[in-house]
Amino acid sequence: MASEDVKTSESAVSTIVTLAEEAKLAREGVKAPSYAVLSICKSLVAGGVAGGVSRTVVAPLERMKILLQVQNPHNIKYNGTIQGLKYIWRTEGLRGLFKGNGTNCARIVPNSAVKFFSYEQASKGILYFYREKTGNEDAQLTPLLRLGAGACAGIIAMSATYPMDMVRGRITVQTEKSPYQYRGMFHALSTVLREEGPRALYKGWLPSVIGVIPYVGLNFAVYESLKDWLIKARPFGLVEDSELSVTTRLACGAAAGTVGQTVAYPLDVIRRRMQMVGWKDASSVLTGDGRSKASLEYTGMVDAFRKTVRHEGFGALYKGLIPNSVKVVPSIAMAFVTYEVVKDILGVEIRISD
Prior knowledge:
Blueprint: H1 2-27, H2 35-57, H3 59-70, H4 81-97, H5 101-134, H6 143-173, H7 185-196, H8 205-233, H9 246-275, H10 282-287, H11 301-312, H12 321-346
Helix pairs in contact: 2-5, 2-12, 3-4, 3-12, 5-6, 6-7, 6-8, 8-9, 9-11, 9-12
């Protein structure tokens, strides 16, 4: 018995020494990560690359969506997706179609990292309490619990990277004729901080928080629930084993993205409009003159909803939905394809919901 206690003590001491040595190596900059840490890092890299590639492919549609969301109804320059893209090409050229994409891609990497990690930790925590409450050690997450885990992940990730999203919206909206130009993400951040204060970086945060709950939550919940149903039910012979084909996963992801963005879209419109409040050149950017600045003044989320619906009708809450919907399928398709390529290169198994 004493011998076993000695062995146990020696094992504990050895573990502590090993952890201390790893911590020392980490502080000194020597790479000695565990397999789990290395796997997480590889997954985050793959997610960041996939997000950047997929967003770049659909960047023109993303910019068109934002311009349709925030343009003034009394001086309309963009009458639709095709006309708007042609107008941007004619007035701003190829670079105009991708304006704001660099800032968007810079935001995607940390956003994806925080979102995926937060979802994983939230899922583990929720599953632990769910099993404790039900007394069933084999219980799995229900669609509602997945919705909750996805909502937590979305709120954390959105809050952590919101200032970058805010300035990305402004950079995307400005044109070559704007009286004042943001030269890039860091210039925009410093300018907003200097001229409008730190609180301005979080304008539109509340509707974003509310909107991210159904958007990210439904994305995770619908995707994983569809995937589980396909594996268990095996309808139409789509699934031959426990693995889904890339095409089937694309379909699941497209369905999840479509449901999530349709439900949350009005809040996205309000968020974009609130982000323009306080920008002294916003009216010139959106209308080409200074007559309509008052229409950009909102005292809060509810006021923005009320004024938008009263002056432009309920349909204004879905401005830009068509280009946003059109970009969902190719964006998710590219994300999956890039995931697979990076997974093979890095030698790590990746799941969209991991």
